[in-house]
Fold each of these.
Amino acid sequence: MGLGHDNRVRSKETEFGYGRKARPSITSVLDNVRRGFEKGSDKIRSFKKPMSFNSHKKEEKRNSSGTQKKNIINPQGSFLQNWNKIFLFASVIALAIDPLFFYIPIVDGERHCLKLHSSLEIAASVLRTFVDAFYIIHIVFQFRTAYVSPLSRVFGRGELVEDPKAIAIKYLSSYFIIDVLSILPLPQLVVLAVIPNVNKPVSLITKDYLMAVIFSQYIPRILRIYPLYSEVTRTSGIVTETAWGGAAWNLSLYMLASHVFGALWYLISVEREDRCWREACEKRPEGCDFRFLYCDENSSVVNDYLTTSCPFTNPDDITNSTVFNFGIFTDALKSGIVESDDFWKKFFYCFWWGLRNLSALGQNLNTSKFVGEIIFAVSICISGLVLFALLIGNMQKYLESTTVREEEMRVRKRDAEQWMAHRMLPEDLRKRIRKYEQYKWQETRGVEEENLLRNLPKDLRRDIKRHFCLDLLKKVPLFEIMDEQLLDAVCDKLKPVLYTENSYAIREGDPVEEMLFVMRGKLMSATTNGGRTGFFNAVYLKASDFCGEDLLTWALDPQASSHYPISTRTVQALTEVEAFALAAEDLKLVASQFRRLHSKQLQHTFRFYSVQWRTWGASFIQAAWRRHCRRRLARSLTEEEDRFRNAVAKRERRAASSSSLVATLYASRFASNALRNLRQHNTLPLLPPKPSEPDFSVDDD
């Protein structure tokens, strides 16, 4: 029992992953005994509860680790790329919402005091909270987004780190602090929580705190947008899918800056008027209580003296240095915008002021000696210069991308005209070249399809070719009976070609270099049977037809020469034709790789739909019909000759001479001569040469 107990303990330690102790070498007998005890202890171990409990814990741990890996987001995945674009637009909207808090202070023009726009406080706080939800979601995603280990990039693309702990450490050491500073609800706290619970005048603390709070969060939000924009352009290549969308994106940033400067202009205008009131109170001999300058503390006092103490005079019209100079804020005070309760009226007027001066680079701003006002005007000038340069440059880039193909086409036409003039080509050739270039441009819009497909992976290129060509090939009876694998191989080798009206795709007597499968248009396939006088055969080809089938016989022949077969037909485009071409070498390669082409069913299908075989079959039937007609005519003439001979014999026996006998003799001679001529010229016109038959008898190896 002791030995059995030791074995159970040893096997238990081994099963739970503890280190195995090195056993000394023993004899084969002792080894057999040990294995016997281990087999016996297996049954006992199955009843041990701690073992099953630990195993269950291991399985739960394994399942939980697998679930954690499933929750990790791939940074190169489409989900994160789309989310980054959404969050980028949400961040820009957040930058546009924060300046709305600047419109909360309002000047009461009748009582000359400051008050707050209560409904705007609630609306701005709700919008700000809604946009902050995107920041919260983004922070959660950042804790679940894998990253590429910098050390692994040395050996290639890099290895993704999916450990949640490592991801959290990396995020906490990078943009976590900036994201937290961006999401802090400081404006909401100031407006909804701090201001109602202070002893100072509400309007005063609101005006003083709003600008500091908004700018304290504006900086981290702007700092967060740039790396996010870089990440979107790095992974997706573009922010918007269209050029007009990119131009609108850059224009929206310019509009955002105009909105921000307009809101600042409004708030500083209110602050400058408040500053003028304070100075007027200080200069007043009997003095005044500053609390009465704020409407929440001023319920009955009317500060009429402030009307004469703070006149809204243009800076150029000020002659007395004691008059308060409002500088660039005079327009806001004289227009009454700071006194209006209509938010949209204030918003659009201030937005127009910001857009106008930002576009003019602040050249029309006539400032006072106030340092803050001068700094504000300088910031408008610098920001306008930078943003205008970026706007023009980016919009030019985006808009040029829409016309780059047209410019390439114009340059190509100019080069073609110069080349044709240099080579002194005749006018008919010039017209054909111009017509082809114009038709190619209409069909492709300057996109080189072959170069585009060549740069794609093989499986993706195959699927695209299947989408383009598979339905067309299945309309061709020759390929309708082929399997999908063979059709995939044929689709991969097809190349698009264009033919203008009256152009020749194949000429009789020239080597056949490709098979054509017609997608659109109409062609005529004609033959003169090698130029024989009086022979002409023509058929019309339309969509889903094919030509150049001489190549199929050549490709299926294992002993075929390296020279291409000679065409027996001329194929001419009657309209603009769009087709797919299968080159001779590609067809040879497909035929050599897929021996299923060698089948009797394919042979019959090929014969039935081949223009050459149809022409030869029609000529063969015509020749057989002519032979049949000649035989019937010869048979009838022979019978007529025998009948006339019998009549002549009867007349001779009667030994009667009459005029009818002469007519009978003439008719008999005519029949004899006609029969003789028929027998002498009993030769049929030459048939077209029978097309060479492909070797379909090759067996599969």
Amino acid sequence: MEKKSCEVIKEAIEKFGPDKIAVAWSGGKDSTTVLHLIKQVYGQVPIPVVNIDTSVKFEEIYAFRNRLTKEWGLSLIIAKNKEALKTIKFAEEKQKCCYLLKTLPLQRAIEQHGWKALITAVRWDEQEARKEEVYFSGRENPSHIRVHPILHFKETDIWSYIKKHQVPYCKLYNLGYRSIGCKPCTHLGESVLERSSRDPEKEKIMYRLRDLGYF
């Protein structure tokens, strides 16, 4: 399982070069696992790390992001839509909110830095909208390739990997959160579904958000 992920990562970075590819990191368990897999291959994370900052994430996520950036020597780039933050009504218009605070700043970062590819932590089993993904997937606006090295991982595989390699993770997971997003749209839940802690309305519009450039 790890071998396939490392092969995908190596192929992507060798194909595009370390200056033309970045990795998306939210501070969650999946994207942190991807960062660690890159470290497994190269001994470090030799490419830019882009973090989409909506300004309404959990304080624990911000603290974890800042700590790991220092400990792992990450080349962190924070993507934020400062203009939208002045007028947006958080979580009221969820599709608009996600587009302005997540999709748009990501698109701008890709274009601004000239990245030809972006590594993400998308998994097949995480959500219905992601089940048709492939390891290398083309995107437009701007044109680039999405690379998904842990598509084949299940939630249990993520935690097995974290335990095996002693990968650090945000302490919110110890409180019962299984999937962590922005504070207004994330709540503790008891469902068997991994993303049950995410806002149901937002989950319903996930297909549309992905069409607009979301993960």
Amino acid sequence: MRLFVAVNPPPLAKLELTDAAAPLRRLPGAGGLRWTEPAGWHLTLAFLGEVPADEVPALEHALARVAGEHPAHRLRLAGGGTFGQRALWAGVEGDVRDLRELAAAVQHALGATDEERGFHPHLTLARAGTTRRRGPGGPADLRAMAGALREFRGSEWPAGRIQLMRSETGYGPARYTAVEGWPLGT
């Protein structure tokens, strides 16, 4: 199973971001991007990759322990940015320090620490397509799109749960399903 650990924003946060990002889909080059689906929007705390099914119970035990040791916190989706010309993302504000500490604890407990990239809380909105997928108007200007999100500030929401998620890739967008979840601070 291809697994990751995430915090999932509530429906209202996703709806607000959907509304804010809708005009971006009409900009030149936007048709050549691979847009992510709001149903799959999440904040990745740790990516685990392929994990044998018999190792999942140990992961679940470790995640339950970490969740109990960290308090719930308050977040909001806000602003935007890019990873070069590869990806467009929405940012996160609020108790980001707590979110970073939670991500570090999850990564440490699962042996998934990625010190090369570090933890940058974000929600991926779109990825650059191949040159064959580019729409009319040439490639999308991801920096301009991120700039259009600069003033976006969604409603604050309680981040009180982490989830072990399964990622299924193949034709079309990735599909994410919750394997298990744990409340924070219990």
